[in-house]
Write a structure and sequence with these properties.
By secondary structure, this protein is α+β, with helices and mostly antiparallel strands. The protein has ten helices and 24 strands.
Length: about 500
């Protein structure tokens, strides 16, 4: 039976971590142990800083452990999107930053003898509209100095209208990357603590970081979570959370060796990977949607699986999983100091599915900021200019948020009253108890009743029928069936539901 754990997490090497030291003082505390957090932590440790990494779950548990692991400068139609939203100087700075990030990461892997595979990256089109997108992407790539080439055929088992290829890119096992970063960081005296959810950061001098076990202090703090867990700067409203799916298949015969992604929608992404037994798997990703807003994530997954089985006859699914990414209105990541952080709190977010290069670029930028250095490409990206098209994109993002907030609260108020009866195994439903929206689910025989109100900003959560979780349609917070936080910006669990109203018993009268 296919597993819903990512191939990377299933085959991850052991990553030793440390215990929490209450009220310790550090030069820098990094919140989040994904690629951004660990790369930043290592760079700062190499500069001589004493650094602590706090991770709410486990190393790589969220986006990095569920990515496709493509370390590519060719990124679908990203460059043409940036060109529509920003200046050519900003486009070039973005590519320069990603080039620096890719170079740093591959050099590190060579240094640590961590294997990776060199592959061509290919963006392909199957429609004339997609071909127009390729033309725009090629023009933008040339402005940025990338030597992408046009192709009319590919190794894919179906015809294409055209393709762009960039040779010499790479694919990795993301958890092996994190394991190497963590080991080198700890060798230099850094500390990594898992199971410590950060709930608050005071920008005092020194900054005070509050987590599950207590507090720690630092001269500066880096928020390296998927979306910032702090509401300062309102970044939860400046990025759109998207959830997409990855499936792994055993495929008879030859499989494509390049790293592919479609210019057309719905997205189809392909690469090879190595299974635990050493055999080759084909990873197929796509079908992204705003987090918490798909009517049925299970149908999205089924559609992706069906496409792979049609395209590669005899394909047998072995794994599936999902990942969450964040996209800014102008497609440029947010990296730098956090407003109202008094110059002591920094963040990085908004990689729009291309985190294997953007995360390391962000780490380089943050390290330069924190050590007083200057990177020209980072300086250009820091001075982003909001254009009318960005405003329109931002309005569209928040219009979707507003619509979800209104319609879901209205639906909850007219939903059935829920008593103590369990729902069917593997399902969840939103009803009410009095005027309180209530979320009830049954998973593995355990029924949980929770307040269906997201602990971040009060959206009514929806049931994710693929991952069996409660997802907020406003800003992408996700919760386990028992209410535990899976992904932010929420930092607090869903509350227990109020008790159902006692049944009213009618009085019997006798004649």
């Amino acid at each position: 039976m296919p597993t819903s754990t990512s191939l990377w997490l299933e085959t991850a090497p052991p990553i030793p971590t440390d215990s929490f030291e209450w009220d310790g003082h550090y030069d820098t505390i990094v919140v989040g142990a994904g690629l951004t957090g660990l790369a930043t932590a290592l760079m700062l440790a190499r500069s001589g800083m004493h650094v602590l990494v706090l991770e709410a779950r486990t190393v790589g548990a969220v986006t990095t452990g569920n990515t496709t692991g493509k370390v590519s400068l060719l990124q679908g139609t990203t460059f043409s999107s940036i060109r529509r939203h920003a200046s050519e100087a900003t486009l070039c700075a973005y590519v320069d930053g990603n080039t620096a990030g890719q170079g740093w990461l591959l050099d590190f892997l060579e240094e640590q003898r961590v294997p990776y595979e060199v592959r061509d990256a290919v963006t392909y089109a199957t429609t004339l509209d997609g071909l127009d997108k390729l033309d725009a992407e090629l023009a933008a790539a040339r402005i940025a100095g990338l030597a992408a080439t046009e192709e009319r055929t590919t190794e894919l088992p179906f015809g294409v209208e055209g393709a762009l290829t960039l040779a010499g890119q790479a694919q990795v096992h993301p958890l092996k990357v994190l394991a190497a970063l963590a080991a080198e960081f700890r060798r230099l005296g850094g500390r990594i603590v898992e199971g410590e959810r950060v709930t608050d950061v005071s920008a005092a001098k020194p900054a005070v970081v509050t987590s599950t076990s207590g507090t720690a202090r630092a001269d500066q703090v880096v928020i390296a979570t998927g979306t910032p867990i702090l509401d300062r700067g309102l970044y939860f409203a400046k990025v759109e959370p998207t959830r997409s799916y990855v499936t792994a298949f055993r495929v008879p015969g030859e499989v494509p060796q390049g790293m592919y992604i479609s210019a057309d929608s719905p997205t189809r992404s392909l690469r090879t990977a190595t299974a635990a037994d050493g055999s080759t798997l084909l990873l197929v990703g796509g079908n992204g949607h705003p987090a918490g807003r798909a009517d049925s994530p299970a149908e999205k997954l089924a559609d992706l699986t069906a496409w792979a089985e049609r395209t590669f006859p005899g394909a047998e699914r072995t794994h599936w999983w999902a990942a969450q990414d964040y996209r800014s209105a102008n497609r440029i990541p947010f990296v730098g100091w956090l407003p109202r952080g008094r110059g002591r709190v920094y963040l990085a977010t908004g990689y729009d599915k291309w985190g294997m290069t953007n995360a390391v670029a962000s780490a380089l930028s943050l390290t330069a900021d924190l050590t007083g250095e200057t990177l020209e490409w980072a300086r250009v990206m820091h001075h982003r200019v909001t254009r009318p098209v960005d405003i329109a994109s931002g309005v569209a993002i928040n219009a979707g948020v507003g619509k979800a907030a209104v319609t879901d609260w209205a639906a909850a108020q007219t939903a059935p009253e829920l008593g103590e009866a369990p729902v069917a195994e593997g399902t969840g439903t939103v009803g009410r108890r009095g005027r309180t929206p209530v979320a009830v689910s049954t998973v593995d025989g355990t029924t949980c009743a929770l307040t269906a109100v997201c602990s971040h900003l009060g959206g009514v959560v929806r049931w994710n029928d693929a991952e069996l979780s409660w997802d907020c349609p406003l800003h992408g917070s996700r919760f386990a069936p028992d209410g535990t936080v899976l992904e932010g910006p929420a930092t607090q669990p869903l509350s227990p539901a109020p008790a159902p109203a006692p049944a009213v018993q009618s009085e019997e009268t006798t004649a």
